[in-house]
Each structure stands twice: as structure tokens, then as C-alpha cells.
Design brief:
By secondary structure, the chain is of the alpha/beta class. It has one domain: Rossmann fold (3-Layer(aba) Sandwich). Helices cover 29% and strands 18% of the residues. The protein is built from nine helices and nine strands. The chain has a six-stranded mixed β-sheet with strand order 1-9-4-8-7-6, with helices on both faces. Strands 3-2-5 form a three-stranded antiparallel β-sheet, with helices on one face. A hairpin with a 2-residue loop joins strand 2 and strand 3. 44% of the residues are buried.
Length: 288
């Protein structure tokens, strides 16, 4: 599908300006004429995007418009067919994965429903190593606070199973896990799916707050109406054409899973997109 440049909707002065200064080390994202072609044609095509550190970019489109695939491409998890992409000045997918982290993408990095919030956090922290965890004992609590998830407000605290979370709580936990990777780019999919109106606005405020702390945030949704007032820019995607065959969408979904999950250990919940784990990898596969 063809689309143009993102639309700038930055407020002239914001109530969202961060009073405490930068917290994250955001990176610049520059995508020019990006396109991904699958087995049934173009998933998306001719998309351009520029996101500076400290901005919130909202990608909006119907299901099947390619918004999830675009976010996976920006994260270095999906190979683009045409166009150019740099994230923090990096252009190879392996290097981009070192600075980009995914929130909850249910088709790519679902939670393990049998594990608790605490167990997911522990798994995500493990790649940092013992010494780092010892120097940063409050890392998990800080990530949860930045994501707007308070375990103390849950009946079972951080012993709550992820299957017991509401949709907005699950999205926030996904954000917290991603923040533990110390990314420069955070990507959040389906930011409005299955969340009541009031809580959707609160989630957008949380993502705006992360951007105000100098993180680069790109989030996707179906309807950007509630985000329009606080987003730095909007990138609307055109409606998808009718599928060529009845199973086309299913095959595209499986292709996304295979591409995005490449190299990630399936036993670690939410670990696809872990920048921390990949920092410890050797230099092999640089040109992938």
C-alpha cells in the first residue's frame, strides 16, 4: 500500500514537557520509501518516517494495513524489500536490534500465561548479568513506574499471573519489560485494542511521558483520535486491499512470526526484542 510522509501534529507548547530532564537515550529513526513484499504482494509500500529522540509517532491503520509489519521493520525484526532505514545511525538489522525494543506484540512475543509479573521481570533482567542487577536493584520497579503499572494495586501484587491482567495492564507490562533493555527506540503495537476509552487516553499519556523523557516512541493503533492531541506526528496507512485467497492473512501472520522471532529463545517470555540480551552476542551475523 502506498502512503506519504507522516503528518506533524506537535502542540506548540506542551503541558507534557518533562520537568526532570532527559532519562532515556533516544535515537533518531529515518525511514525512506520503505516497503515489504510478501508471498501475496506488498504488505506495505512507500512509507517514509522521521522520528527524533523525545518524540511520539503514531502509526494508524486498519487490520491488515501493514502497521505491525512496519513496526517490526523499524525494530530490525523484519527485512524490508525496498527503501532505506537507519535507527540511531545504524542500518543493519542486527545492530538496530541492539537499540530497539518491542512492547507486547501478541503474535510475536506473547507472555507465558503460567508465569507471574515478577517472573517475567526476572527473566528479562537475567541477560544483564549479576553485577548489573546488583548495581541497579530498583530497575524493575523503575521500569514498572515509567510504564504506569503499579503491582501494589493488584490483589496479588507482582505475584499476579499475566493471564489475570486486563488488556491495558498487559500492554503496560510489555512496555516495562522493553524498558529493562534500556532501548533508544520503543515500539508498541495495538495501543488501543481492547482498552476502554478512558484507559486508552491514560496509556497515550504514559507513552507521551516516555517521549518527554527523551525516549523515541513509535506506537500503532486503529484510531488515532485520542492520540492526535499529544502525538508528535501521525502516519496514516491506507486500507488494505481484499485478500487474494482465504488463507492469505494467516500465511502473512506466520511469516511475521518467523521473521520477527529469529534468534530469540522461545522459553524466555517477552524476550523477542531484547536489546540487553543481544548486547552480549558476538559479532557474527553483522550483515543480516
Amino acid at each position: 500500500m502506498d502512503a506519504g510522509q507522516a503528518v506533524d501534529v506537535t502542540p506548540s507548547a506542551g503541558p507534557h514537557a518533562g520537568p526532570s530532564g532527559p532519562v532515556f537515550d533516544g535515537v533518531e529513526v529515518v525511514a525512506r520509501e520503505l516497503g515489504v513484499r510478501g508471498g501475496h504482494g506488498w504488505v506495505y509500500r512507500r512509507l517514509s518516517l522521521h522520528a527524533a529522540p523525545g518524540t511520539l509517532t503514531v502509526v494508524t491503520g486498519e487490520a491488515g494495513s501493514g502497521r505491525t509489519s512496519l513496526l517490526l521493520t523499524l525494530a530490525g525484526r523484519m527485512r524490508h524489500t525496498e527503501g532505506t532505514l537507519t535507527v540511531g545511525g545504524l542500518s543493519t538489522r542486527r545492530r538496530i536490534r541492539q537499540v530497539a525494543a518491542l512492547g507486547l506484540f501478541p503474535e510475536v512475543n506473547p507472555f507465558d500465561d503460567a508465569l507471574t509479573i515478577r517472573e517475567h521481570l526476572q527473566e528479562r533482567l537475567r541477560p544483564h548479568g549479576f553485577l548489573w542487577r546488583r548495581r541497579h536493584p530498583d530497575a524493575a520497579r523503575s521500569a514498572l513506574a515509567h510504564a504506569g503499572l503499579d503491582p501494589d494495586a493488584l490483589p496479588r501484587g507482582d505475584q499476579t499471573l499475566t493471564r489475570e491482567l486486563t488488556r491495558d495492564q498487559a500492554v503496560r507490562l510489555g512496555v516495562a519489560l522493553a524498558l529493562l533493555d534500556r532501548p533508544g527506540l520503543l515500539l508498541v503495537d495495538d495501543a488501543d485494542a481492547g482498552i476502554p476509552a478512558g484507559r486508552r487516553r491514560e496509556l497515550w499519556d504514559t507513552l507521551r511521558g516516555l517521549a518527554d523523557l527523551r525516549l523515541t516512541v513509535v506506537a500503532a493503533c486503529t484510531d488515532a483520535g485520542e492520540a492526535a492531541g499529544i502525538a508528535t506526528s501521525l502516519l496514516p496507512l491506507p486500507a488494505p486491499p481484499p485478500p487474494v485467497s482465504g488463507d492469505a492473512r494467516g500465511e502473512d501472520t506466520m511469516a511475521r512470526r518467523r521473521e520477527a522471532g529469529q534468534g530469540a529463545p522461545p522459553s524466555v517470555p517477552g524476550d523477542i526484542g531484547s536489546a540487553a540480551a543481544r548486547r552480549d552476542e558476538s559479532g557474527e551475523g553483522e550483515n543480516r
